């Protein structure tokens, strides 16, 4: 079955089955190629701290239940949990209170590399012991919660805080308007996502409609799982209409490979990334229409595609190819599962080599940044 075909239920199931970040700790793993997500998490820290201060001071709970939705694997998997612990320690030290017990749930799709996450738990607890003075497991319990955040995951009125970083631009399915049930491309032929310069308005509407369905469901389910006045802190990739999306460049590379006879036309025309990058107003309208949350903060910032390479080479002359390779490796870590499932794994090395060259040309023009939405919501 092609990605996005079939009924709404089957289309969603297909994405759940084939979308996952590259596991393990190898060269192409998400663990070693996730700097933009890490940067977004670091930029979200002040909002997270503010939400925890508001939450804790509103009743001084003995236990806080927190979930990180879309945790993936590698070092980033525990970073939000560590930030929550640090914030609670700081807040409680200032108030001269004993920190509450933290029950953290790490959520991602079932295909996520939870084995690597589990193997990293002992070292994480050891880090808490040495750096934060947590001598036993009594102050922090961590559990995995596999499943799609587009559906219900927790009991009613169970959570205090929901967090998600760099995930909500992923849709539950490819918009049904793009490909028929028998796999015939209907719209956006040869464009793998919403392209700013050439996608017709009908394609933009199809993606926007699917985003509105998914984000509305996300808000509804989280409102049921959160306690009254529970907090939600989110960041995900948005759209400011000025920055070309990195996946648009991927579409150009795939088209080049079609022209050279390396990929069948029908294969490209039936492939679409299940993602949409909304603008601020599109997000605001969904939140206000769904009605379960008050918007405390909704703003944007930019993160360089090559932030990891730049941070590791501060003060040094940047190598254009190495910088582009860093970006391509990051995208490979998050998209290879989808691409290999549809086009086959045999072309992946060639595809990402070409992708590196395309990115390098883009970066040389002074371009290449993600627009990231940062959101703080309070349940009514």
Automatic annotation (TrEMBL):
Keywords: Methyltransferase, Transferase. It comes from the Eukaryota. This is S-adenosyl-L-methionine-dependent methyltransferases superfamily protein.
